[in-house]
Design goal:
181 residues, alpha+beta, three-stranded antiparallel sheet, two-stranded antiparallel sheet, 20% strand, extended, disordered C terminus
Length: 181
């Protein structure tokens, strides 16, 4: 599988059922893999999102620790709860990552972050949640906003709104490589 950053150049309609797309990409040794035009490829296109700053994740953990202190629990338990409430589900090429396991199996043995979806006498169904270190700017912003809301509900001091906005804007200013003509 090849993952490339690309600049979209052109879309041409060939007929009612076909289009031709043109992209510009940086030189990459894996491009030789695409030389065989007789083999069909699966192409996935997504918008390039800017990565969030490490300050955002550090601030998330500070807030989780404050909530944990107020609720007399661990910051890890608070983090898991915040991911369950405000986190982003993980997915792959097929769709959301879900699993069904017997109730006697502890989901923590699988690693990662899981949210319970369904449960009966014998089975439990879970959906995987991405860890915050995997979040892009938009996902992290949603998570931070949710955790800030929880803090306010508990009377916990957070950054003033204007400082939160500055931090959010800084997430959007992380350098990314753009391909120009």
């Amino acid at each position: 599988m090849i993952s490339l950053r690309a600049k979209f150049n052109e879309l041409k309609k060939i007929d009612n059922q076909k289009y031709s797309l043109t992209f510009e990409v940086e030189s990459n040794s894996e491009l030789e893999y695409l030389d065989d035009t007789t083999v069909p490829f699966k192409l996935t296109i997504s918008k390039l999102r800017k990565k969030r700053s490490l300050n955002a994740n550090a601030y998330l953990w500070v807030l989780c620790e404050k909530i944990a202190k107020a609720l007399q629990t661990s910051k890890d338990e608070v983090y898991e709860e915040m991911l369950n409430r405000y986190g982003t589900y993980d997915y792959d090429d097929i769709g959301y990552i879900t699993i069904q396991i017997r109730n006697y199996v502890d989901i923590k043995r699988l690693g990662g972050h899981w949210q319970l979806l369904t449960q009966d006498d014998d089975w439990s169904g879970y959906i995987k949640i991405k860890g915050s270190s995997e979040y892009n700017t938009k996902e992290m912003s949603t998570l931070i906003d949710g955790v800030v809301y929880e803090c306010k509900e508990l009377g916990i001091e957070t950054l003033p709104p204007h400082e939160l906005e500055i931090m959010k804007q800084a997430w959007g200013n992380m350098p990314i490589k753009i391909i120009d003509k």
